[in-house]
Amino acid sequence: MTTIVIVGGTSSIGREIARYHADRGAEVIITGRDASRAETAAKEIGGRARGLALDLAEPGEIAPALADVAQVDHVVLTAIERDRNTAADYRLDDAQRLATLKLVGYTEVVHALLPRISRDGSVVLFGGLAKDRPYPGSTMVSAVNGAVVGLVHTLAVELAPIRVNAVHPGIIGDSPYWRDKPLDAVVSRTPAGRLATMDDVVDAVAFLLRNRGVNGVNLTVDGGWLLT
Q1: Pairing of strands 72-77, 163-169
Q2: Do the Cβ atoms of 182 and 143 come closer than 8 Å?
Q3: Strand order in the sheet with 218-221
Q4: Which of 24, 50, 126, 216 has the highest Cβ tally under 10 A?
Q5: 143: closest CA among 85, 184, 187?
Q6: Closest to 16 in 3D by CA, of 49, 53, 54
Q7: Please, which residues have CB within 8 angstroms of residue 123's CB and are 6 or more apart in sequence?
């Protein structure tokens, strides 16, 4: 039986990834900052899903939180925080939290689970296209997502033969964050003629997990929006 740890699996895309794999018989361990919410989400996902509490922004607590996780085949790190932070009005605490969460926290999860990850297993990280298309207020988001690219490359070398890849979603039109926003102008600039969906991201993650020939890849999921 395949076992997958999904960090940030209690809501949005992370939850859909968990549901996809639970429906196919995998043992799915989802994490969220709140234990009760993680347990409730696992019950709603069903199958062999279970939840536990973990805060990536508190890296010293990560290893103890994962202590009872046994053998793991795959790790998916979907947890993000949206942050508008500019150099002119720089919120140091928010900047430190985001960098810690996505770089130190991601890496500490891998470190804590590494002795238990199958040699033919894989890790998928989540970045984002702010690394390529910054916007006012994306100072830290763009920097951190750019750093995810480098993190994928070094982890793919250090963890070999375990594979490491990343997904960098664009605007996901049916996600809770985007679905009620006016996006016609974005659609008109997207070569695919529609925005990427949560199902598209779920399928991209499934591909990266199962395809043993793909390693060290930063995969964009945006319908071609970045080209325009």
Answers
A1: unpaired
A2: no
A3: 48-53, 27-32, 3-7, 72-77, 117-126, 163-169, 218-221
A4: 126
A5: 85
A6: 49
A7: 74, 75, 76, 77, 110, 117, 155, 159, 162, 163, 164, 165
3-class SS at 213?
A: coil
The dihedrals phi and psi of 167, each to the nearest 5 degrees, come to: -110, 135
169: left (phi over 0), alpha (psi -120 to 50) or beta: beta
- Statement: the pTM of the whole predicted model exceeds 0.90: yes
Amino acid at 18: A
What count of residues does the chain have?
Answer: 228
Sign of the dihedral through C-alpha 203, 140, 137, 225: negative
Half-sphere exposure of 125 (CA within 13 A, CB side): 33
Alpha carbons within 13 angstroms on the beta-carbon side of residue 144 total: 27
Closest by Cα among 104, 204, 82, 210 to 151: 104
**Is 126:169 a contact under the CB 8 Å cutoff?**
yes
Q: Are 74 and 113 in contact (CB under 8 A)?
A: no
23 and 1 Cβ atoms separated by less than 8 Å = no
Q: 91, 81 in Cβ contact below 8 A?
A: no
